[in-house]
């Protein structure tokens, strides 16, 4: 069958020129061209066959689509539940729109909420996730932070090899197009870097904003003095310390660089790549003639629960790239997951995989705010229309070691190590999941907490008229799950991260906020602050801090683990090749795959997973 989308404009004669990486004033032209190559009509894919069908046009999904479609002999279809974003460019292209024209709580956000959290005063936490081409890379804070070599090698050992640091670093660098900061910004914000630790030919641009503000450099210097030393090369496996991280933006025009603009817009002329938006996948169908190795044959999707269901066929593979929430949901709806859950909903069990949706981990965070002595210390609270001014985003961080949080860190580490048995034995999860969690807890306790890897991230921000400093837990011992509660694919699953269900998480996070007070009491940051606004001087004792955290903490937007890469008998969902156990041609490629939480923001890691997946899929096909 000839793969052409009905109603889609023919490729224009200038396609070759347009397909090059856009720069400067050509960016909008490329977006307008690419817009014509995306369809919202489900009938355009209905009944057609593609070599690869990708479920989810987010951070990983579009990166994978861009790479797989480089082979002109292979056809690729992407099905995205959200909109294209082409008609609302400011929200996605202007960096500071992430704050002042935010996509959160709009049509571009899934607007998930957790279940009521027993250890957070019964609150339901908001969990924004991108529902638009580009996924969360289109709406996030643009932080480009890599994790550590030690963490990656823990993951590698948990799965038995194939995912070592050197290989993963190469994949992350392959996705990156690095540009150094402006000299004036580097001086003011104490930015240092090693060009060799970055990629220079990838589709995702990284650099630093065109402007900075006095509290940024002051935060760096005060943090360096009391929290963690300055790190001049945080991208080569040693990510701890204090630094201003790069941001995913394009230096030539100061626009956000994300998976749509990097991997899809420049190659919109490819006739073998078709993207459908506004449609939710409802089910994956299988050939079950080999019960031990089922084959994904087609994908069902619809615009809404009341509209027609369409089917697209997969000649080679189906790849699930829905993220840590949607990927386990799709698998469960399709009959892959814990048999007891599926049976309770009347879903035919295709593959009994108890780990699907389990092992959910998230960075728990909250922020303190301080009133600046001068209004000029912080940005205007709006999108100004000036590209350089609007390029400013917050990326100052300090990844802090245990010895800066506790007077006796060895006692805390011993407490963690000694708690593993109780945590695992008391976990209400299947036996195989317990086995995997035991190994991951032991690795975290013995190889991460007693290393230089940071249990806490401190984030220095200037926004909304204030100096805001956050603390975020990086290696939570609390675990949770994502589970469907209906066969309706348009109903949101139950999301239970189990926040603070392990009290050591509360202890560590509490110390992070105490450290923030030491940072702001250190010059030069101290000299820029008038007074503490939140939580204020009424919060002093351990008990007061813990009560404040329970009432105010929420997500740092980094959920992971729900389709963990672990051995099958340890609750794993995918193997070293990202293939779902019990299937021959179904993979998961997104941030649900890492079995442990990292001291990093997940975007760089997700691009790395997608780059490796593209190589694995090409090799197998």
UniProtKB/TrEMBL annotation:
Coiled coil segments of this chain: none
Record keywords, A-Z: FAD, Flavoprotein, Oxidoreductase, Signal
Pfam families cross-referenced by the UniProt entry: GMC_oxred_C (PF05199), GMC_oxred_N (PF00732)
Taxonomy, superkingdom: Eukaryota
Binding site for FAD: 132, 281
Required cofactor names: FAD
Oxidoreductase in keyword set: yes
SUPFAM superfamilies assigned: FAD-linked reductases, C-terminal domain (SSF54373), FAD/NAD(P)-binding domain (SSF51905)
Record: active site: 558, 601
PANTHER family from the UniProt entry: GLUCOSE-METHANOL-CHOLINE GMC OXIDOREDUCTASE, GLUCOSE-METHANOL-CHOLINE OXIDOREDUCTASE N-TERMINAL DOMAIN-CONTAINING PROTEIN
The protein's name: Glucose-methanol-choline oxidoreductase N-terminal domain-containing protein
Source organism (scientific name): Malassezia brasiliensis
């Amino acid at each position: 069958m000839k793969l052409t989308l009905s109603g889609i404009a023919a490729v224009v004669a200038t396609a070759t020129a347009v397909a090059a990486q856009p720069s400067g004033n050509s960016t909008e032209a490329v977006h307008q061209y690419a817009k014509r190559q995306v369809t919202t009509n489900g009938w355009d894919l209905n009944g057609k066959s593609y070599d690869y069908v990708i479920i989810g046009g987010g951070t990983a999904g579009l990166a994978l689509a861009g790479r797989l479609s480089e082979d002109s002999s292979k056809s690729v279809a992407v099905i995205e539940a959200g909109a294209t974003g082409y008609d609302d460019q400011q929200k996605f292209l202007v960096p500071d729109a992430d704050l002042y024209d935010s996509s959160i709580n709009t049509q571009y956000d899934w607007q998930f909420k957790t279940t009521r959290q027993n250890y957070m005063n019964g609150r339901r936490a908001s969990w924004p996730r991108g529902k638009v081409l580009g996924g969360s890379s289109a709406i996030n804070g643009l932080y480009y932070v890599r994790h550590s070599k030690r963490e990656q090698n823990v993951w590698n050992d948990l799965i038995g090899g194939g995912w070592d640091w050197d290989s993963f670093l190469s994949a992350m660098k392959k996705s990156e197009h690095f540009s150094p900061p402006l000299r004036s910004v580097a001086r003011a914000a104490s930015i240092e870097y090693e060009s060799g630790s970055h990629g220079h030919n990838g589709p995702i641009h990284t650099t630093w904003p065109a402007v900075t503000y006095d509290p940024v450099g002051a935060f760096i210097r005060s943090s360096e003095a009391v929290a963690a030393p300055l790190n001049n090369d945080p991208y080569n496996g040693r990510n701890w310390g204090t630094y201003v991280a790069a941001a995913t933006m394009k230096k030539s025009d100061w626009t956000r660089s994300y998976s749509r603009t990097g991997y899809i817009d420049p190659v919109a002329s490819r006739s073998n790549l078709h993207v459908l938006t506004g449609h939710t996948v409802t089910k994956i169908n299988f050939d079950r003639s080999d019960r031990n190795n089922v084959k994904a044959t087609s994908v069902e999707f619809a615009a809404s629960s009341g509209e027609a269901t369409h089917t697209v066929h997969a000649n080679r593979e189906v790849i699930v790239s829905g993220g840590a929430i949607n990927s386990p949901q799709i698998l469960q709806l399709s009959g892959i997951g814990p048999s007891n859950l599926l049976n309770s909903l009347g879903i035919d069990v295709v593959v009994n995989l108890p780990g699907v949706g389990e092992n959910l981990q998230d960075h728990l965070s909250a922020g303190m705010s301080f009133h600046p002595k001068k209004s000029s210390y912080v940005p205007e609270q709006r999108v100004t229309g000036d590209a350089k001014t609007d390029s400013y985003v917050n990326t100052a961080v300090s990844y802090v070691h245990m010895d800066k949080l506790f007077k006796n860190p060895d006692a805390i580490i011993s407490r963690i190590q000694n708690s593993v048995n109780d945590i695992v034995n008391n976990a209400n999860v299947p036996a195989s999941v317990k086995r995997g969690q035991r190994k991951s807890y032991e690795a975290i306790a013995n190889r991460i907490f007693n290393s230089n890897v940071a249990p806490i991230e401190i984030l220095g921000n200037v926004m909304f008229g204030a100096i805001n400093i956050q603390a975020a837990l990086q290696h939570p011992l609390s675990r949770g799950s994502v589970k469907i509660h209906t066969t309706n694919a348009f109903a949101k699953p139950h999301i239970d991260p189990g926040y603070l269900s392990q009290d050591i998480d509360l202890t560590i996070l509490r110390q992070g906020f105490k450290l923030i007070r030491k940072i702001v009491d250190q010059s030069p940051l101290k000299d820029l602050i008038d007074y503490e606004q939140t939580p204020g001087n009424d919060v002093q004792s351990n008990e007061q801090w813990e009560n404040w955290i329970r009432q105010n903490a929420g997500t740092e937007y980094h959920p992971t683990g729900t389709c963990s890469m672990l051995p099958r008998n340890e609750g794993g969902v995918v193997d070293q090749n990202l293939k779902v156990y019990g299937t021959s041609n179904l993979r998961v490629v997104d941030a649900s795959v890492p079995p442990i939480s990292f001291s990093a923001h997940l975007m760089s890691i997700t691009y790395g997973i997608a780059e490796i997946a593209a190589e694995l899929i090409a090799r197998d096909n």
